[in-house]
Write a structure and sequence with these properties.
Elements: H1 7-16, E1 32-33, E2 50-61, E3 64-72, E4 83-84, E5 87-89, H2 96-108, E6 115-120, E7 124-126, E8 131-140, E9 153-160, H3 161-164, E10 171-176, E11 182-190, E12 193-196, H4 197-211
Parallel strand pairs: 1-7, 2-8
Antiparallel strand pairs: 2-3, 2-5, 3-4, 3-9, 6-8, 7-8, 10-11, 11-12
Length: 216
């Protein structure tokens, strides 16, 4: 399937590869994690994961789909300055799609009414911070105005969806932690933006859903 095809056809094709917006399925979905590439470092004891969600906002530009991404504020306590999808922890009783739309409004000023939700991608767990993140995919028509929350977002930008969904751009990196462990992670370098960690992991999982790549 070409991501540059007729808009309605592309929408339907992407949605057909996602899980529905159905709260009853949330506990049984396949999960990826920071440690999927390092299974030897998986937690030995059960973890009380904190529910969270992000919005994978696919902007329908004439030249093709693009993804709204942010650079996190340098004043944040966690993941300072990193590239991220709009999102955050869920409030009690919220569904992932409610969280994703609320957080996108709070972080970048995206009006929820402008987002046509398509479905859910593969949840992702961050071992260091203990979040269980559900990516929520939605389509956004161009012509919107964004307003970043300076307490959370330093910059907003778009990256071509085709670039992010090209396996040639899925880099595998390794770094040594302060404890001396070697940890592997995915990254995607768009111009001068280094998209890595959980954000790259969730985008890689979305690629696997859409194009049927083997889990790695």
């Amino acid at each position: 399937m070409s991501l540059t095809g007729e808009r309605g056809e592309v929408r339907r094709w992407i949605a057909s590869h996602l899980d529905p917006l159905d709260a009853t399925i949330l506990g049984g979905m396949e999960v990826r994690a920071d440690l999927s590439l390092d299974p030897a470092h998986a937690p030995a004891a059960p973890v009380a994961w904190t529910p969270a969600a992000v919005l994978v906002a696919l902007v329908e530009r004439d030249e093709g789909l693009s993804v709204l991404l942010t650079r996190r504020s340098d004043t944040l306590r966690n993941h300072t300055g990193q590239i991220a999808l709009p999102g955050g922890r869920s409030d009690p009783g919220e569904t992932p799609w409610e969280t994703a739309l609320r957080e996108a409004r709070e972080e970048i000023g995206l009006d929820p009414a402008l987002v046509q939700l398509a479905g859910l991608s593969t949840p992702y767990r961050t071992a260091g911070t203990g979040f269980h993140i559900t990516p929520v995919v939605g389509f956004v028509a161009p012509g919107f105005t964004l307003s970043p929350n300076p307490d959370e977002v330093a910059d907003i930008f778009e990256t071509p969806f085709g670039f992010l969904m090209d396996p040639a751009n899925h880099e595998r990196h390794a770094r040594e932690t302060p404890a001396g462990d070697r940890r592997c992670f995915y990254a995607m370098t768009w111009e001068d933006r280094f998209i890595w960690g959980a954000t790259a992991g969730m985008l890689k999982a979305l690629y696997d859903r859409l194009f049927g790549a083997a889990v790695a």
